[in-house]
Amino acid sequence: MKHQLCCIGHITLDKVVTPASTVYMPGGTAFYCSYAVSLFKNIDYTLVTSIGDTEMKVVDKLREAGIPTIVLPSKKSVYFENIYGENPDDRTQRVLAKADPFSMDKLQNIDARIYHLGTLLADDFPSDVIKELSRKGLVSADSQGYLREVRDTHVYAVDWANKREALQHIHFLKVNEHEMEVLTGFSDPKKAARQLYNWGVKEVLVTLGSFGSVIFDGNNFYRIPAYKPRKIVDATGCGDTYTIGYLYQRVSGAGIEEAGHFAAAMSTLKIEKSGPFCGTEEDVIRCINTAEVTNKLA
């Protein structure tokens, strides 16, 4: 059976420490993407994750929510610790445990039109996995995880090893303004997008916060505005929400610009509440039609 859209990625256990409290919660790209897209009933979606036995209760809840989930065994789950000071921008991050990387021998029977790789750490998906999946369908990835390396529990910012080899097999790539500069050396979104395209990416999605986003397909730059949220509650998972909204629209037949607007509005609705996106397709359309447009690139 060939699914329309499949997300492959680890679900994390997140420990969030603030001066006021310590909270444990599930997280990760696979978690945020799956809950978001599951609300759109007219899509054949499946999740492939790899977690330790201790976190199977998270999978039970995903399945109770109607999200088809395939679990690959792992000795441990990914365990992030985020410690915040009085200033919320002051964060210390550690990885206290890592799950087993994904390997192609465990993914052979997964067939999809689009595979979205929910990468959290640089070694989650070896280049050969990306290459083999690209022979079966279109591969999508967020660059964030490829730029994180763990050494003795500490997280270090790095460039993407073997990026030139991997990017030629990736159809959709989402980067933000910092990630695009690390990958390409360019701070200009258009120059960065063009470089990533020249390296093989077919649709480059550059998110720029309140300045919206830019999508490049080798021929046109699509300038997507940002929609102003009514309030900012929780930005965690906004990038994942943008990407899955875009992929949902593309696999459903929408054009690039239409998919970009949908993705931007969907991430705006997500930031207004804690946890994964919990709206409807009608809510997203309403946001596009009624929300105030914030800064837009010239």
Question: How would you describe this structure to a colleague?
Answer:
- The protein is an alpha/beta fold.
- The chain has a single domain (1-288), classed as UDP-N-acetylmuramoyl-L-alanine:D-glutamate ligase, CATH 3.40.1190.
- Helix content is 30%, strand content 29%.
- It contains nine helices and 15 strands.
- The protein has helices at 29-37, 56-64, 127-134, 163-167, 177-184, 189-198, 238-251, 256-271, 281-290; strands at residues 2-9, 12-17, 22-27, 45-51, 69-73, 78-84, 91-97, 111-118, 138-142, 148-151, 154-157, 172-176, 203-207, 213-216, 221-224.
- A nine-stranded mixed sheet has the order 5-4-1-8-9-12-13-14-15, with helices on both faces.
- α7 (238-251) runs antiparallel to α8.
- The longest helix has 16 residues, at 256-271.
- The N and C termini lie far apart (44 Å).
